[in-house]
Design brief:
By secondary structure, this protein is of the alpha/beta class. It folds into 2 domains: 221 residues, Alanine racemase (TIM Barrel, Alpha-Beta Barrel), CATH 3.20.20; 110 residues, Beta Barrel (Lyase, Ornithine Decarboxylase, Chain A, domain 1), CATH 2.40.37. It contains 10 helices and 17 strands. 48% of the residues are buried. Bound molecules: pyridoxal-5'-phosphate.
Length: 362
């Protein structure tokens, strides 16, 4: 096997491919289009595999992601982030290169895009974001008909439907059944909004849900047409707690080495915030979960402190660790971690290693 640098961000290719195939199958069975969120992988190689497995296109969060996908030939995109300021011009320009729908939750966000689209002589598809409980962006269901009607009246925009990010599922206390129930009710609320808009006389062709915790609930609701999970492609420690994945489906690890054992009761590794990201854990205060050499969770070791390039491991299990020893860590949140790395090592079952490079990091 090619030696990995330390630290290294490693993808288990077989697990990632299985995740891609499983999600594609599930969405096919649910009868909805799969439009994975690209912010998780930020890698064109991963997008190609998702596309080959049946993804209809991609969701993205940043103009850099949209640009990279368009350049790679993926021409059917949903840019699910308010195109504020100069991004209005980009939204119009992208539609010279492909079909790039924008997501908005107000007429104010859409008007500049409409003007830029008219200037460039393009039509920009537009989706209205509905807040089904996350409390981030998105309008209340009761305001949807008025705003959808106003959007449909703007020149050079094509109102195509509604969407929600049911991210509130990550905060549901309770078991998997409670998370599934919350996914179903978020999707039902979205479908009801689509029905209201249709009843007002506007066609609604897209009813789009999207999250990994809700992958097996929201897309199964009658009337949903599309799902946009992202994190599923690698999964992570937070998804494990939410039981949207199993440990043997987690495809992304940070490999690090012990660099110091000078502090009593602690060992220091060469992976800190810039390797693990600052994303929090839904299991208390940890920067990641240590894995045994057999890839089981090692609950004898904790990772409570991270500096920029140093991490502190504590707990009974550190007694055997020596300077130079390797450790594998499961990150809290895959998407934030990938964004930290310029190079990712992709590990095959036969030990072969390839290097891939995330795009549009910031
Ligand atoms: C608009 C939107 N759609 C889809 C997703 C994908 O959700 P997840 O990361 O749970 O897969 C996100 C995640 O932040 C999002 O913001």
């Amino acid at each position: 096997m090619t030696a990995l640098p330390s630290p290294a961000l490693v993808i288990d290719r077989a697990r990632m491919t299985a995740n891609i195939d499983r999600m594609s199958r599930a969405m096919r069975d649910a009868g909805v289009a799969l439009r994975p969120h690209f912010k998780t992988s930020k890698m064109i190689e991963v997008a190609r595999l998702q596309s080959e497995a049946g993804a209809v296109g991609f969701t993205c969060a940043t103009p850099e992601e949209a640009d990279a996908l368009l350049t790679a030939g993926f021409a059917d995109l949903f840019w699910a982030h308010g195109p504020v300021g100069a991004k209005a011009t980009l939204a119009a320009e992208f539609n010279r290169r492909g079909r790039v729908a924008i997501g908005v939750d107000s007429v104010e966000l859409a008007e500049p895009v409409s003007r830029e689209a008219a200037r460039l002589g393009v039509t920009v598809p537009v989706r209205l974001e509905i807040d089904t409980g996350l409390g981030r962006t998105g309008i209340r269901a009761s305001d949807a008909v008025v705003v959808a009607t106003a959007l449909a009246g703007l020149p050079n925009l094509e109102f195509e439907g509604v969407y929600t990010h049911e991210g509130q599922l990550a905060g549901v206390s309770g078991d998997r059944a409670a998370i599934r129930a919350a996914g179903v009710s978020a999707a039902e609320a979205l479908v009801a909004v689509a029905e209201d808009i249709r009843a007002s006389g506007l066609p609604v062709s897209v009813v789009s849900v999207g999250s990994t915790p809700g992958w097996d609930s929201a897309p199964t609701v009658a009337g949903v047409t599309e799902a946009r999970p992202g994190t599923y492609v690698f999964s992570d420690a937070n998804q494990l707690r939410l039981e949207s994945t199993t440990l043997d489906q987690c495809a992304l690890t940070v490999r690090a080495s012990v660099v110091s054992v000078q502090r009593p009761g602690a060992v220091i590794i060469d992976a800190g915030l810039k390797a693990m990201s600052a994303d929090g854990s839904n299991r208390g205060s940890t920067f990641g979960l240590l894995l045994t050499p057999e890839f089981e969770l090692d609950d004898t070791v904790e990772f409570p402190t991270a500096y920029e390039e140093h991490g502190t491991l504590v707990g009974r299990g550190i007694a055997d660790l020596r300077v130079g020893d390797s450790v594998a860590l499961l990150p809290n949140h895959a998407c934030g971690v990938v964004n930290m790395w310029g190079t990712v090592h992709v590990l095959d079952e036969d030990g072969a290693v390839q290097t891939w490079h995330p795009v549009g990091r910031h």
